[in-house]
Amino acid sequence: MTARAPARATAEHTGTDPGEPSTAEIVVRGVTKTFTRRGGADVPAVDDLDLDIGHGEFLVLLGPSGCGKTTLLRCLAGLETPSRGEITIGGRAVFRAGRGARVDVAPEARPVSMMFQSYALWPHMTALANVAYPLENRRGGRREARAAADRALALVGVPELAEQYPGQMSGGQQQRIALARALVAGQDVVLFDEPLSNVDAKVRDQLRFELLALQRRLGFTAVYVTHDQHEAMSLATRIAVLHAGRIEQLGTPEEIYNRPASGYVARFVGVSNELTGQALDPTTVQTDIGEVTARVPTALVGHPVLLASRPERWRIVTGTPDEPNTWPATVDLAVFVGSRSEYMLGVGDGTRLAVWDSGATSHTTGSRCRVTIDPADVRVLPVDEGADEGSSWS
Question: What is the 3-state secondary structure (H, E, C) of 262-275?
C-alpha cells in the first residue's frame, strides 16, 4: 500500500480557530521558527502553529525529540525569536512579526516564569537566595524578596533548606527549590521544560502529584514540555501532541488516548496494535487477518486505512464464541508485570498482537486460544507516513 503524509491538524483537532478573536491566557497565531542547517537548508522547528491556552489550564506539549515542543516553549519565554507570527500572553502582545509594527518583548519583561530541565540554580547561593533572586533583580527590595522566598519555600514543602546550597541537596530537593523560584514572582503563567527528567522514578511520581496539587491550588496557567506519555497523561488538562513542528492533535488525555486523530498519535501515546487494510464499506475493513468490523468514516470508505487499537481492549477467550472480530491465535509470549499480564499473540500469517489482561498469567507460551475485540474499540484512521505496511506491535 502507498503511505501518504499525515494531514495538518484541523481546527477540530487543535481546538483553535485562527479567524476568531481569543480571550485565552496565551494565544499563538501562525508562529514559525526556522533554523538554518549547515549547508544553507532552512528547517522549520515550529511550522505555522496556532494554539490557545486557557486561564488556569495545565497544557502539556508532548512529542519525541525534534518535534518542536521545546522550541515552542522557548518562543513563549522569549528565549527564541520566531521567524514570524504572533504571541499574546495575558492580553498583551509579547511577539509580533510579519504584519504591522514588530513587537519582541524581552524575556525578563514577559509575564511568565520558567523552570528549566537543569534547574539552573546558582551553586554559590543558598536556596533562599536562589529563590529570592528573581524578585531582587526586578524590584530591588531585598527584605520583601526574602520574605516572599520564605513563603515560596514553605509552599513547596522545604523551608528547612533555606540556608543550604544546591551541592548539599538531593536532586528532588533541587527540583523543589527551582519550582519555588518559578512560583515566587507570582506570575499567572509558568513554563516547565522537562523539569522531572533528572529525578529518579519514585521521587518523580511524588513530585508530579505535588506539582499538580500546587497548580490547582494556586490557579496559575502551566505549559509543560515532556516526551513522557505517562507524565503527560497524569498532569494535563489538555495535551498537544506535536509532530514536525505542528500540532497533530490537541485534546484531553482521554481523547488523545481513546480517540487518536492519526496513527502517529496512536503510536506515540501508549502501545498500539496496528493493522493496515482496505475499507470495503462503512463497517468492514479487509486486513491480513481477515475482515475486521469497525466504524469506518465515510471519507475513508474505498481507501487504504490504518486500524489502531489498545492492548487492554483485546480479550483472550476460550471456545468458539459467536462474536465479530474473533480469531484463532497462538500465545507467543506471556509475561506477568505486577499490575497485569502481557501477552504477545500470533494471529493469521505472521501478524502479532499485544493483549493486556488485568489478572494473573493464565495462558502459557505456545498454547492455543482465540482473541477478540469489540468493534467500538477499533479506531479507523488514514494511512500515514509512520505506519508500516501490514501490521505492527509498537
Answer: CHHHHHHCCCCEEE
